[in-house]
Amino acid sequence: MFDFSTITNWIDELLRSCMAPWAVVLVEGLIIGVLLLLVYALIALALIYAERKICAFFQCRYGPNRVGPLGLMQPIADMFKMLIKEIITIKDSDKFLYGLAPFLVIISSMLTFGCMPFGKGLLTLDFNIGVFFIMAVSSIGVLGILLAGWSSNNKFTLIGAMRSGAQMISYELSIGLSILSVVVYAGTMQTSQIIAAQENAWFLFSGHIPMMIAFIIYLIAGTAETNRGPFDLPEAESELTAGYHTEYSGMHFGFYYLAEYLNMFIVSGIASLLFLGGWMPLHIAGWEAFNTVMDYIPSVVWFFMKTAIIMFIIMWFKWTFPRLRIDQLIKFEWKYLLPIGLFNLLLVTLMVVFGWHF
Amino acid sequence: MSNLSLLVVVFITGVSLVAAALAMAKLLAPRTFNPQKGEPYECGIPTRGGSWMQFRVGYYLFAILFLMFDVETVFLFPWAIKVRDMGPEALISVSFFFGVLVLGLAYAWKKGALEWK
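^ inputs. structure came back:
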């Protein structure tokens, strides 16, 4: 399996040999920043196209097929259109908070994006509190959404933001509990070590039924966290026009659009990191030939394949289930997911303590 | 590079993404003035009264419940790392904490705090 850290180490040594230490840090920071921005934008464009195509096929339509071959230029045209639209500020809005909100939303998604294990050795942020850090920064996004709704001075946005806040903080508990069960099982919070622990079998398979329950809880709560699918109450078009970002126009709105798609990628990425082994190939203990063949597939392909499958499932949710009512949403979290999650955490702990797993 | 400087790099990347896109929009987008554009959107009719109004207390209640459980999850993380090494002892000692927590949830449930009326 190719280790990308050989490339990064080589670049590092090359820079060190011809520059002062502070310049090395500067240049490396610049390279990392530009690469992250590029991947971020590319994933967003690809996701916008994929979402529109998949949605069209679910509804027996063709989807975008006019701009470029197969409509492939559609997201680029969309992006350009968004850039040349006027940014309107509402008369009595709180100007400072109104401008600050998109920053918070994008920063939160960018910081979580930096924790994604794209491949072997392709991990930007690898703290020893990795998963905990992901949980902490991803909750900054709620703040951005609440501020956006509050500062716009519009009743629709306020209701949308309140609903979104209630929904996101409620479902964050379930995400926390399922992440906690993975931490109990792995015995570490560091992203790279969680992946290394799944070398022989992914947690979804080696953890028996408790891990599968945790995975399903994570998927449901993750869908709710991205304000998508059956949980899109905050921007229920038929009642709230566009929810918390009603008053944002042009590129300002574009940030929310971007963050929504990227959050879907991030949620799927974390799911594949925690339960499906991140970039780890599918290994079955004892099947040496099979494992060697699987090792030939690059780690980047593995990560993006798993993430794409989970993203497809999340999109599938959206076009299959009708939207929930707010009382059903709250009831579902607090009376079903949370108690099941707590009980499941106990089960995982029992399993780990008494060694009932391979 | 150390982890902390990487964190700063990623943070700056996020900020510069928003700032650069906004600057580009400033250059490319038209800017016209019209008092009607500044009105908050409310399906075409003028807004009546202020928008920053009183809000239902239900959201507040759930925020408090969330706070309780979230702080609890934070406390459980250090335990979660060590439980494999410490064995049954760790499970027993945390089960008291866990029990109090489940009792709290049961109390809120019984009191009807989890209903959306």
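Chain B has one domain: 3-111. The helical segments of chain B are 3-28, 58-86, 88-111.
thumbs up if we can close this ticket
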